[in-house]
Amino acid sequence: MNLVEQIRERRPILWALWAVAVVAVIGIVWGGWALWKTRYEAQGSIALTQARALIAQSQAPGASADARQRAEKALQDTISEYPRLSSVGQAAYLLGSLRFANGQYGSARSAFELARSKAGSPTLAALAALDVGYCWEAEKNYEAAEKAFQAVISGASPKSFLYEEAMLDIARAQDLAGKRTAAIETYQRLLKDVPESRRAEEFRSRMASLQSPAKP
Predict the structure, then answer these.
(1) How far is CA 91 from CA 52, 69, 73, 95, 133, in A?
(2) In this predicted model, what pLDDT tens digit does every residue of 98-145 receive, in sequence order?
(3) Which domains does the chain have, with CATH numbers?
């Protein structure tokens, strides 16, 4: 009886050989993916670092419009070439901030929405959501701004990050939209939720100004 026939008769050995082969293949695939991921992250991080340097140059005193365009393009390229980069949310947030500073509110909002969806942390997601509201507010769409600010605190507790800031933004958007009663109620809720806030007097002052008769 030759070796092949012996192995066929010993099925446990055959299954063991198959198991070893499968594990080896999985190891090779996993190793290749890990190597690709490491290189991908390294290259993407370099691209983002270079984009950050261009942003710094674009924000220097006397920076030209061309410098701002180069910074924006570098961020756009990073996002499009490395969409699975772990820090792509940061790149999108930087792009949104750059566009907002340049008065490009619609395109800034799109970048902030991408940053929120790709955020690697709840903090970045909350900041991006808040900035979506600021974009709407800058475009004088106060209803949309209020909804965006509401989204920041949806399901959040008064101790959550940016809760106080988002509530103030909600009240401001309501006031700008002519919804004085709603704005007053928001300030009252804010004082109830965070009574020990260092800005409590500011809340009361703003609420008082809204409660006073409107000037004709």
Answers:
(1) 9, 15, 11, 6, 19
(2) 999 999 999 999 999 999 999 989 899 999 999 999 999 999 999 999
(3) 67-139 (1.25.40), 144-216 (1.25.40.10)
